[in-house]
Amino acid sequence: MKAYVPKNREKMMKQIEFPVHVDDPRIMIMWTADEFLIFTAILCVGVLVDHTWFAMMIGAVSTRIVRRIREGMPEGFLLHILWWKGLLKLKGKTFPNPFQREYIP
Predict the structure, then answer these.
(1) Displacement of CA 17 from its chain's centroid (Å)
(2) Full residue range of the structural domain in which residue 48 is found
(3) Greatest C-alpha distance within the chain
(4) 14-54 per-position pLDDT tens digit
């Protein structure tokens, strides 16, 4: 007895790209999403002030610096630094005020 094989089998099967690891970040062009966001923001400012090439160079250098900082530190380090400096406000009742350095019981 033969198994049923549809005639349009090639059209039904599409190749889907899966990341190598489940936790791998998404890659856009040649950067991760956060590096791409930094580059794009700097590029937009450069376009607005009419210095596009200069902004592209600054964006590439800044993404390289962010990548080097992130590779040597644990995951979530940059978010922690932003919170510690008071630049990132986290939602929720369990996050303390980042400017309160001492807790007295």
Answers:
(1) 19
(2) 31-71
(3) 79
(4) 666 666 676 777 777 788 888 888 999 999 999 999 999 99
Q: How many domains does the chain have?
A: 1
DSSP strands (E only) in 1-105: 27-28, 31-32
Classify residue 99: in a domain, yes or no.
no
> Would 11 be classed as within a structural domain?
no
Q: Integer distance in angstroms from the first to the last C-alpha of the chain?
A: 78
The two tokens of residue 61 are 């250098």
Rounding to the nearest 10 degrees, give the CA dihedral for residues 63, 41, 86, 92.
-110
Pick from 60, 43, 61: nearest CA to 52 = 43
φ, ψ dihedrals at 27, nearest 5°: -105, 125
> At a CB cut-off of 8 Å and minimum separation 6, what does 46 contact?
52, 53, 54, 55, 56, 58, 59
Inter-residue contact 28 to 36 (CB < 8 Å): yes
